[in-house]
Amino acid sequence: MHTNSGTTALRIRPRVWLGLSVFVAYLAVFYAIWIVNGIDYARVGESEETLLRWYVAPLAGGLVVLLIVISIFGWWRPALRETRRLPKGAAVVPAIMAAVAILNLVFGEFSRVTMTMWILLIIGSILVGFNEEVVARGQLFVALRSRFGEVGVWFFSTTLFSLLHLPNFFFGIGSLAFLQVVIQFGLGSVYYLAFRSTGSLVPAMLLHGLWDFSVFSSSLPYAGLVAPFLGIAGVVVAVVLLGKERRRNSTSEPDPLKQVSP
């Protein structure tokens, strides 16, 4: 079992099943609001009404779940902060992703976006960045590290993050949801790199929110065409750096035989 240092000070001791319970509870509330409001995922950014009912409302409901449950657990500090950082070079792919999102905002088409829509897009993007990073990375890291090493933490948290998009199959995009799941695994790896290279979940939240803001606001989301390549880069960099970290940690562990006095 892999133990996470400092977890003894938490109100409730981390367990994998607890992290999964938070994940499921969040999705249950989110998708329940979508179903009640008659979601059509392909039309989320269409108007003020669709943004309010299908973007802001479900995220606001999910936020309430996270604030209550993670506060009860007492997991906020380890969920938002990272002490075992990857090299600063790991931030290169997240930086490129941020640049692509900004370029999408510069060259996108926004003639249909009203002032109210801009406000709703900003609110929703802040919420999606906070919510999904906390539920699929921050608090899941705390839970998964109670049992798995960092490769497992990256793989399982990123897989769950990608799978939370799978129900979109039933909400308006059909089989494209499977492609979205694959792409989101890659983008989730980029958010993972943003978290672990900076030591804070905030940059990953901001990047996630910026990306969704640029995609949902523009009628011509060029960023979507670049997403698969960013995802591939994110996975490759994560695998390489985690492999190096794993080897470094294994060689740095003291050999008990060498500590025995002659």
UniProtKB/TrEMBL annotation:
A Pfam family that this protein carries is: Rce1-like
Listed transmembrane segments: 16-34, 54-76, 88-107, 113-130, 151-170, 225-243
This protein's source sits in the domain of life called Bacteria
**Entry EC number(s):** 3.4.-.-
Residues in CAAX prenyl protease 2/Lysostaphin resistance protein A-like domain copies: 117-213
Is the keyword Membrane assigned to this protein? yes
Q: Name one GO molecular function term.
A: hydrolase activity
Indicate what this protein is called per its UniProt record: CPBP family intramembrane glutamic endopeptidase
Alphabetized UniProt keyword annotations: Hydrolase, Membrane, Transmembrane, Transmembrane helix
